[in-house]
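retry 2 of 3: previous attempt timed out while embedding adenosine-5'-triphosphate. Reduced batch size to 1 and resubmitted. Inputs unchanged:
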Amino acid sequence: MAKVIAVTSGKGGTGKSTICSGLGYALAKQGHRTLIIELDFGLRCLDIMFGMENSIQHDLGEVLNGKKKALDAVAQVPMASNLSILCAPKTLTPVNAEQIGDICSSLKKYFEYIIIDTGAGINSHVFDIVEQSNLILVVSTPDQVCIRDASLMSDEFYNRGNKSQRLIINKVSKKVIGNGLVANLDEIIDKVGIQLIGVIPDDFKMTVATGKGNPIPTDSEALKAFDAISKRLGGEFIPLTFNN
Ligand SMILES: Nc1ncnc2c1ncn2[C@@H]1O[C@H](COP(=O)(O)OP(=O)(O)OP(=O)(O)O)[C@@H](O)[C@H]1O
Ligand SMILES: [Mg+2]
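retry 2 succeeded.
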């Protein structure tokens, strides 16, 4: 039965979709059957990131309105045989947490990991959905506004009863850390107040790859970080460093 992992952040643009695609890719490359469900209604992007813009036939909207069974709307990603995606509809579609919960439940037996991309502008339904997941990955960049929003978000989930949370610090570079904006990574961890699971460097190679729908190159520093995080998710001890 799949472990459901929600990737979320307080502020938009922190890298949630990039992390879902990179982490999903790393898990799949390690042999884990992985599904990414995109909840960014009206603003889908996973199809572009995986080079599938012209090949996606079905999406979550058709599942929600009863036209398709969830498994039939799932698309296999060509660049990684163990990876599948269930894309968000291109238009705004009414949704509630119970429906997403039911869709996840119906798909759990086919996958080891289900990663949920919560999209921008988290609303109360998405809150309910994230709350029900087995693990919440809260994403922050080394930016004070982003750090505070991540902290508020994390507190809210904690107060609602989800204590299974880990922090991902994304877009990290030596240029940003220690220049007066943020002293070091410990400052971010302390302010958000949850345990760190990984640090992802600012990596232009990855931006180019995901923008063109190409696989993340094997020499990408970000991919190394995704590999490390995916192994930590499986319980392996991989020491944390500035770069992963
Ligand atoms: N580690 C990174 N290195 C370089 N660029 C990155 C990194 N992570 C994300 N980006 C870039 O930042 C931008 C925003 O990323 P992304 O779309 O994944 O954020 P998001 O949190 O999903 O946004 P939204 O809140 O709108 O859904 C993209 O251009 C992406 O390529
Ligand atoms: Mg996104």
